[in-house]
């Protein structure tokens, strides 16, 4: 995409973006994860820099290269680690986009040694992880919060429910089949109830559409 040098609608904004899946360790060689590639979050980081934001990217494990010109690039593995790194940087940020596909559950205990193949069945018990975005929503203050929602059904209804429950300004809803793909079709839903469908298009263009909406909140928050 082409952005005019004079178009810097996110100028001065300290923006925290999360991307990628998380890895929840089962033992030293095995993890529970999901199909997120991190592309959407990395495209958001790249385009946000072009639009003038100071971007910090907190990323779960991906095979992607950190975009140029991000202020800070923080690699994490688990949901717990992501929570800690985001938490640390929340006060300094004007807004957060949680594009990461954070695991909802993590094994109750991680084995220090590799689990050997034995019985025909293996049961692993899981506990819920922290809802990072939910926690940020509780202490939102003047910050701009953007969530993502991945759904396989009732996309719009579930996304609106999450927008409200997590106290967000905006939510970007996508179907599960966008995971791992270069393309995406999304619904961008704002807290005032407005809804926009964007795509199918390259994730870079989807990122620009999302950040253009974000710029609206940013300009209003500065009066
Ligand atoms: N999220 C988060 N911490 C979690 C789980 C999700 O911060 N432990 C964030 C995601 O980054 C995303 C938003 O919450 O921005 C919605 O994630 P999603 O998985 O769609 O919703 P959940 O609330 O986890 O509900 P469910 O998976 O049951 O649909
Ligand atoms: Ca989830």
Automatic annotation (TrEMBL):
Residue stretches making up the DNA/pantothenate metabolism flavoprotein C-terminal domain: 10-215
Organism listed in the record: Pseudothermotoga lettingae (strain ATCC BAA-301 / DSM 14385 / NBRC 107922 / TMO) (Thermotoga lettingae)
GO biological process: coenzyme A biosynthetic process; pantothenate catabolic process
One CC-aspect GO term: phosphopantothenoylcysteine decarboxylase complex
Protein keywords: Decarboxylase, Flavoprotein, FMN, Ligase, Lyase, Magnesium, Metal-binding, Multifunctional enzyme
One term of GO molecular function: FMN binding
Family per record: In the C-terminal section; belongs to the PPC synthetase family. In the N-terminal section; belongs to the HFCD (homo-oligomeric flavin containing Cys decarboxylase) superfamily.
Protein name: Coenzyme A biosynthesis bifunctional protein CoaBC
Gene designation: coaBC
Function in brief: Catalyzes two steps in the biosynthesis of coenzyme A. In the first step cysteine is conjugated to 4'-phosphopantothenate to form 4-phosphopantothenoylcysteine, in the latter compound is decarboxylated to form 4'-phosphopantotheine. Catalyzes two sequential steps in the biosynthesis of coenzyme A. In the first step cysteine is conjugated to 4'-phosphopantothenate to form 4-phosphopantothenoylcysteine. In the second step the latter compound is decarboxylated to form 4'-phosphopantotheine.
UniProt binding sites for CTP: 104, 114, 148, 162, 166
Organism superkingdom: Bacteria
Manner of cofactor binding, per the entry note: Binds 1 FMN per subunit.
Catalytic activity: N-[(R)-4-phosphopantothenoyl]-L-cysteine + H(+) = (R)-4'-phosphopantetheine + CO2; (R)-4'-phosphopantothenate + L-cysteine + CTP = N-[(R)-4-phosphopantothenoyl]-L-cysteine + CMP + diphosphate + H(+)
Pathway: Cofactor biosynthesis; coenzyme A biosynthesis; CoA from (R)-pantothenate: step 2/5; Cofactor biosynthesis; coenzyme A biosynthesis; CoA from (R)-pantothenate: step 3/5
EC code(s) of this entry: 4.1.1.36, 6.3.2.5
Cofactors that this protein relies on: FMN; Mg(2+)
Keyword Magnesium among UniProt keywords: yes
Chain segments carrying region Phosphopantothenate--cysteine ligase: 15-223
Keyword Magnesium: yes
């Amino acid at each position: 995409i082409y952005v005019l040098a004079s178009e810097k609608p996110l100028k001065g904004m300290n923006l925290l973006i999360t991307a990628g899946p998380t890895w929840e360790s089962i033992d030293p060689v095995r993890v529970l994860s999901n199909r997120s590639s991190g592309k959407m979050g990395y495209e958001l980081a790249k385009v946000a820099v072009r639009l003038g934001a100071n971007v910090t990217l907190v990323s779960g494990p991906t095979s992607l290269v950190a975009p140029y010109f991000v202020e800070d690039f923080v690699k994490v593995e688990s949901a717990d680690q992501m929570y800690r790194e985001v938490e640390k940087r929340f006060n300094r940020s004007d807004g957060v986009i949680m594009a990461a596909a954070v695991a909802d559950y993590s094994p109750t205990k991680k084995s220090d040694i590799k689990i050997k193949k034995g019985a025909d069945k293996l049961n692993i018990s899981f506990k819920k992880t922290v809802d990072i975005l939910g926690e940020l929503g509780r202490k939102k203050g003047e910050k701009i919060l953007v969530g993502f929602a991945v759904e396989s059904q009732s996309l719009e209804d579930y996304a609106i429910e999450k927008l409200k429950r997590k106290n967000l300004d905006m939510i970007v809803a996508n179907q599960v089949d966008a995971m791992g793909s270069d393309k995406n079709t999304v619904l961008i839903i704002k807290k005032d109830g407005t809804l926009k469908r964007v795509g199918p298009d390259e994730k870079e263009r989807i990122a620009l559409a999302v950040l253009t909406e974000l710029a609206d909140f940013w300009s209003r928050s500065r009066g």
